[in-house]
Every structure is written in structure tokens, then in C-alpha cells.
Amino acid sequence: MQAFLVETYWQIGRYIVEFEQAGKERAEYGSKLLQVLSRDLKAAYGKGFSRSNLQYMRLFYLNYENCQTLSGKLSWSHYTELLAISDDLARSFYEQQCIQDRWSVRELKRQKDSALFERVALSKDGRRFWHWLRMGNGSSRRGMW
User: Fold this and answer.
1) Is the pTM of this model over 0.90?
2) For residues 108 and 102, is the Cβ–Cβ distance under 8 A?
């Protein structure tokens, strides 16, 4: 069920960017696009379509343009936490950790708040860490840190 919800929200984000914003990264100034969409979607389908949730769906599509790269192991709550991370490398690091170590959303928040990414990057194995992260090699993570 979670995977279906995540993919549905990605599709809504895609719709917002590709059709409502005509492929532009942002809506036209003053259009109140998300407010209007939120009102219309809530009227048609009920809750779950707040302006802020639509904003996350839009960001979700912009940050994960290929739906095939989404993990079925992460919930929408995981993705909203990850989207709050502006640094792409840090987001990728935390995403891989969530998947491999099966972090709950609560654990993800705890690790983010403890600056795990920054601490590992500054550790004496920092060079190996950066190489591993840039290569996107999540499969070799076990036992490395």
C-alpha cells in the first residue's frame, strides 16, 4: 500500500510540474496554483491534499524525476523527511541508510538531528566515505562504517 501511495504522490507531483506549471520548475508568480489545487483535490478526494503536501509532491517529482528509482521500502513520511534535506549528497546518504538499515522515520529524524552525515564525512575514513557516496554504491555499505 505504501509503494502505491508513494507512486501516486510522485504522479501528482509530475502532473503539477509538467501540466500545471508547463514544465517549469516554479509556477508563475502570484498564481496561487497549489492553493487552488489543494482546494479542488480536497473537495474531490478528501484529506491528504494540503498545500504543504502538494508542495512536497512537487519537490518529490523534481528530485526524483525517474519513478523507477524510488524505493518501495520507504514510506511517504520517509520521503518528506528526505526532501527537507537540501544537499543532494546528504539526502542520498540518508536515503541509502534508511533502506539498508531499515530506519523508521523516527530513526531518520534522530540521525539527521545528530548530523550523522557530517560526522561520517569528517571522520578519519572521510575520503573513503566520499568516494563511496559519489559512486552511489549502497551495496558495499555494510561493515564499512
Assistant:
1) no
2) no
